[in-house]
Amino acid sequence: MWCHVVALLVTFSVPDYERAWRAKERAEAEKKAAQLADILQSREQMAVQKQRVLSQAAQMEKEQFQRILQVCPVGHLSTPPRQYTS
Question: What is the residue extent of each domain of the chain?
Answer without folding.
Answer: 16-61
